[in-house]
Amino acid sequence: MPTQGPALLNDDGTASMATAFMLSHHGFRRDLALFAAALARLGGQPDATTAPRSVILAAEWSAFCDKLHGHHVVEDQNMFPNFRTQHPRLEATIDRLSADHRRIDPLLEDGKRAFAALPATETAASVVATMRALLDEHLALEEAEVVPFLRAAKAFPPPPTDAEVELYAQGFAWACQGIAPEVLARLDDILPAPVRTRLPAARAVFDAHFLALWGADARSGQSRTAVPDWMAA
Hints:
Blueprint: H1 17-44, H2 50-86, H3 91-116, H4 122-145, H5 162-176, H6 181-190, H7 193-214
Helix pairs in contact: 1-2, 1-4, 1-5, 2-3, 3-4, 5-7
């Protein structure tokens, strides 16, 4: 089980690019835990809902893969090259993180095949367990070595197109589920106005999706760190 993880807000209570970055980490940890629980239920008591539930989970895994792969593309193409130049001491860390990305991508594809084979859950559960172990180490390393250099950046770059504004609003809506209100209030301070304006509606849509997908008993939390509060040791 992961430890509490670093605070989403800076020591002075403000948000930064570190906040935005770690919100995704929170979302990845949250969703993998929910996938694990859902697979355990699916395999334990097959009934008339098993087949449609299998289709829903397979679609959600595909969406999760898109989010995680997209996160890594941004790191590999934008963040890591800049950090190699600006912070040479991070080179070995970045090499390891990039190597992790090359291990994760095939695992995501393994997961797509395993989820397509539901309601047989053994392979999918194994992929999720492997992914959780790998990401626990990977995200913790990023948070220890990379995140401190993001704390000083207090403005989120404005998306250049309306389509990207919508994409970011949907992405933040996903990442913000289960986050404490005071963190969300400070996040608003650094978001570009077009994203901030669209975020409440995007969050309402995603929260309804989350409820329908995971059920009313899913623990959404009030997290203030990069680890969901209900998961932290």
